[in-house]
Design a protein that fits this description.
Immunoglobulin-like; Rossmann fold; mainly beta; 994 residues; 9% helix; 8-stranded mixed β-sheet; 8 helices; 6-stranded antiparallel β-sheet; 4 domains
Length: 994
């Protein structure tokens, strides 16, 4: 809503402005009592010198706010009446009402309406906020202009007492009204007065929304529930991409909904853009010496144009816009022909008002008097071109060229349709001879059938209807025709459609036909019910004998039952009792607790759900009651010796493990095995052409189609080692070249670990032989195109150094760990290198004197302030023992994980060794390795970290012959789901922890 004032001050409360002016007048009277008539505010002219400022500034009483509707009314400048001073008027105005605005007689004359009409019909008006004076102000208007609710008895009153007027909140209550708001009060007064002016005997239901946002949609629902003849909406907002989801609020079969097109010139607003409404444009209405007595031109402020988002309704045939075109019809809305309105809430009373807020209730009032068939046709009635509209052939509301064929979007046309005024303006009460069809809604939708509803009106001729439907907008199928007679009332019809496809969206519309032609309703949609949507979720609360199985079920609108099936194979064999998931349309979290399971066993499970459209099966998931052996295949050409050295999992169903196996005597080749959540599959990465002994020691995957593996290889008849890098692109592995450091002695270099943030960002670490000779740290970085060498700083007095593991919480926070020798000593010490996104910095993790030859082999960093590094050492008793260091973002702290009870007490280094670690948080880590037990057999070892202490776990020993079983790498996707890999003499080894 916009209001014009002479004062340039914006957004001041109008009551305060009035009070200030009154105060000025009182001071003027006190000082200059004799010259009272000469004491005139600049905004007010004397009766002898009527004038009107052409420079009046637009003031928006309902300011535009993103995402909310605004009222679309404009008003005359404010003027005060004191001591014989008349309100300011303009000689250019021609109306017969107060301030020379148009009154009811002017509107009835211009639009050829009778003095009475609308008996028994109701106009529902939807606005925001509360006008506390709505009823009394309406009565003032009707009394002034002799608008008779009962013309026979000359009764003007339209009140709650006589049943003519009703005011409700958005819940339908005649109490608890919204807060008062002076801007919307003028809108409400305008709507009530114009509805009364053109439809004097109509009942009026005013529904007030709490605010100007989505609450107006709620109020729209309430207005429709009252079953009025028409709904009037004098508000709107700019189009936005998601608006089509709101069309449902304006889809009211059998009830025409009128919406203002806006007051900002050539521009499309919503809800006027919805094909479910009658879009009301605006004109300038002036008296003329012609047969009609009036002329109309396009109002420069009216909205119009081609919608960006709404589908074109079937009755619009203009070619330049393939979507919905605004407008459909128009009426007076101009500042040159304002209407006279009475509003006393923070206003002085009579106002000259304009905008498409005026056109909307005018059109609504005329629509309310039409036959039920015409109202059911809604906007379609105007395109049937009956003799009920004046064509507007002059005027424009902006610039809409090029191209030339689009000019009708904003210009009047000599004939036919144009955007600003649609098919024209009212020429008596709207009436159409066509039969009417209004598409309703789909009900009783199932998997292969649905019942659809609609309204048909024969309009006095023998009529048939049918329903067109199809999976595309072009429809393509139709039901048998149904005869509905030749009455004149609306008939609520429904039709069953069968033979549909489940899980499919269908378009449909009602079509009526008689001797006056065929009328198509709007396209509407429904989606047939599909099979339930299910998803198996990871198991929780896993113990050695029990578990809770989890999943989600979406019934898709049909009564649905579900159960879990589980077992030690993918044939399952057991299932829970069936339970109901209801018939909703949203996903439900479902769980079932199971007991009596076997310890140390891997179980498969999935969720299964059934409704009338069929049965859906969730994906297979695994859980293990503790640690359990996960069978892995061996290469077909395995001769002797195979091992997996590292694993990287991006989910519970996507892992890649790397290692090597001996293909023939003295010939080791790379090995890759992938896990899909159910089975392992061997892949064969290429081996270097000259390679004799080839190893893959580290792997990092960022997705199931992007992995990087690193290691080293030895050429035939050579003592030198070469870096080996292989990359997986989702289809095949390929070898990549990585450069050697400048200080490398010959070509001896090896990579042991890698971490990738993406397919274009990886860090690989290891060591190389320098020219001294000695070993030194090696860092290589991948940028998506090539590998480059980086040189991290070394601890002081370093003689030898070696990096073993690397982990990053982001591309700018990495930690690499390993060992180094200091000075001339023979003791290896732990070392850490930290990457901050720009440079490397060296750290020397603290360790107690009781830890001899402490080694770090693997590290995992869930955040930049949390890392766990693991390895082994000799204790103060010179016995082999696990070793760990933790990083808190500031310092490293030594930890001493406990040894397994069965570990051999030996002074031999590495009779216990921890080789891999994976953390999902700073308090949830799993480390794996191996130890020699008292029976002199090497068996898997695992330890868990809870943020405070380490605890020994007991992974099972495979039930195959052998004396050597080792876990080397581990990857966890949750605190309770980890896969460890390694070797068991002549075969690969994998174990699942849950």
């Amino acid at each position: 809503m916009r209001v014009l004032y002479f004062s340039p001050v914006r957004r001041a409360n109008r009551r305060e402005r009035v009070q200030r002016r009154r105060a000025g007048w009182l001071a003027c009277v006190a000082v200059f009592a004799v010259a009272l008539l000469g004491c005139v505010l600049p905004q007010v002219a004397s009766a002898e010198e009527p004038s009107r400022s052409a420079e009046a500034e637009t003031y928006r009483v309902c300011p535009a706010k993103p995402g909310v509707y605004e009222c679309l009314v404009e008003a005359e400048p404010l003027a005060l009446t004191l001591s014989g001073i008349r309100p300011e008027v303009s000689p250019a105005l021609e109306g017969g009402g107060e301030l020379k605005g148009l009154d009811p007689e002017n509107l009835k004359s211009a639009y050829k309406l009778s003095a009475t009409g609308g008996s028994g019909e109701t106009i529902a008006i939807v606005d925001a906020y509360n006008d506390p004076n709505a009823e009394s102000d309406l009565q003032k208007y009707r009394e002034k202009y002799k608008v008779y609710y009962n013309a026979t008895e000359k009764v003007t009153a339209c009140t709650e007492a006589n049943g003519c007027f009703k005011k409700l909140n958005q819940k339908g209550e005649t109490k608890n009204y919204p807060s008062n708001e002076y801007g919307w009060s003028l809108e409400i007064s305008l709507d009530l007065d114009m509805a009364s002016a053109v439809c004097p005997e109509c009942h009026i239901d005013l529904v007030e929304a709490n605010k100007e946002g989505n609450e107006l949609d709620v109020a729209e629902e309430e207005a429709a529930s009252l079953k009025p003849a028409v709904i009037s909406n004098s508000w709107g907002r700019a189009e936005e991409s998601g608006q089509t989801t709101r069309d449902v609020y304006f889809h009211r079969p059998g009830i025409p909904v009128v919406a203002a097109s806006g007051d900002s010139g050539y521009k499309v607003e919503y809800p006027a853009a919805s094909p479910d409404v009658i879009a009301a444009g605006g004109t300038t209405l002036k008296k003329a010496e012609n047969a009609r007595g009036w002329t109309e031109t396009v109002w420069t402020g009216t909205g119009s144009g081609c919608s960006k988002y709404e589908e074109k309704p079937p009755w619009q045939t203009d070619k330049a816009c393939t979507d919905r075109t605004d407008n459909d019809v128009a009426a007076d809305a101009s500042e040159e022909s304002p209407v006279s309105v009475y509003d006393s809430y923070e206003y002085p009373g009579w106002e000259d008002v304009w905008g498409t807020s005026a056109a909307t209730p005018i059109i609504s009032g005329i629509e309310a008097q039409a036959s039920s068939a015409t109202r059911t046709l809604a906007a379609d009635a105007f395109y049937k071109k009956p003799a009920m509209l004046f064509h507007i052939s002059e005027g424009s509301n902006g610039t809409c060229t090029p191209p030339a064929e689009d000019e009708y979007f904003c210009h009047a046309t000599k004939e036919g349709y144009n955007g600003p005024t649609g098919e024209g303006t009212p020429d008596k009460v709207f009436e159409s001879a066509a039969a009417a069809a209004a598409t309703g809604f789909a009900t009783k939708v199932a998997g292969t059938e649905a019942t659809v509803s609609g309204i048909v009106n024969p309009n006095g001729l023998a009529t048939k209807y049918y329903v067109e439907y199809g999976a595309t907008k072009s429809l393509g199928s139709k039901t048998a025709e149904v005869s509905v007679g030749s009455g004149t009332g609306n008939l609520e019809e429904s039709k069953a459609i069968t033979g549909l496809t489940a899980s499919t969206t269908y378009y449909f519309r009602f079509v009526v036909t008689n001797s006056n032609g065929t009328t198509d309703g709007l396209n509407e949609t429904f989606s047939t019910i599909g099979k339930p949507t299910v998803e198996t979720k990871p198991a929780t609360s896993v113990t050695e004998t029990s578990v809770t199985l989890n999943g989600t079920v979406n019934p898709r609108g049909a009564e649905t039952k579900y159960y879990f099936e589980y077992g030690t194979t993918i044939s399952y064999g057991s299932k829970t009792e069936e339970a109901t998931a209801g018939s909703g349309t949203s996903s439900l979290e479902e769980s079932k607790a199971i007991a009596g399971l076997k310890s140390g066993t891997i179980y498969n499970f999935r969720i299964v759900a059934t409704n009338s459209s069929g049965t859906s099966y969730g994906s297979n998931e695994l859980f293990a009651t503790g640690w359990a052996v996960l069978a892995t295949p061996n290469p077909t050409e395995l001769a002797v010796g195979a091992q997996l050295s590292d694993i990287s999992c991006t989910s519970t169903t996507a892992c890649a493990a790397v290692g090597q196996f001996e293909k023939k005597v003295e010939d080791k080749v790379p090995l890759v095995e992938t896990w899909n959540g159910t089975t392992w599959t061997i892949q064969e990465p290429p081996a270097p052409t000259e390679g004799e002994w080839d190893y893959l020691d580290g792997v990092s995957c960022t997705s199931s189609t992007s992995c990087t593996a690193v290691g080293y290889y030895q050429k035939h008849s050579s003592d030198d080692w070469y870096m080996l890098v292989e990359r997986w692109n989702g289809t095949a592995w390929s070898i990549e070249e990585a450069p050697n450091p400048k200080e490398a002695n010959g070509t001896s270099a090896e990579l042991q670990s890698v971490w990738c943030a993406s397919s274009e960002n990886c860090i690989a670490i290891g060591s190389y032989t320098t020219k001294k000779p000695a070993s030194a740290m090696l860092v290589e970085r991948w940028n998506g195109k090539e590998w480059s060498v980086e040189e991290p700083p070394l601890p002081a007095e370093t003689q030898q150094s070696d990096l073993k593991g690397v982990s990053c919480s982001s591309s700018s926070a990495c930690t690499a760990i390993g060992i180094f020798k200091k000075g001339e000593g023979e003791t290896w010490l732990p070392v850490a290198e930290r990457w901050n996104g720009t440079t490397w910095s060296v750290q020397e993790p603290a360790h107690s004197g009781s830890a001899k030859d402490p080694e770090l082999w693997s590290v995992s960093c869930p955040s930049s302030a949390a890392c766990i590094a693991v390895g082994n050492m000799q204790s103060s008793a010179e016995e082999s023992a696990p070793f760990a260091e933790s990083w808190n973002g500031t310092t490293w702290t030594e930890q001493e994980p406990p040894s397994p009870k069965e570990a051999m007490k030996s002074k031999v280094l590495e009779t216990q060794r921890v080789r891999g670690v994976s953390c999902v948080s700073s308090t949830e880590c799993i480390a794996v390795g191996t130890f020699e037990n008292k029976a002199e057999k090497w068996v898997p070892m695992a330890e868990s970290w809870n943020g405070t202490t380490w605890a020994v776990q007991e992974p099972p020993v495979p039930a195959v012959a052998g004396t050597y079983f080792e876990l080397v790498g581990v990857s966890c996707t949750s605190a309770i789901t980890c896969i460890g890999v390694g070797g068991a003499e002549d075969l690969t080894l994998a174990e699942l922890y849950h």
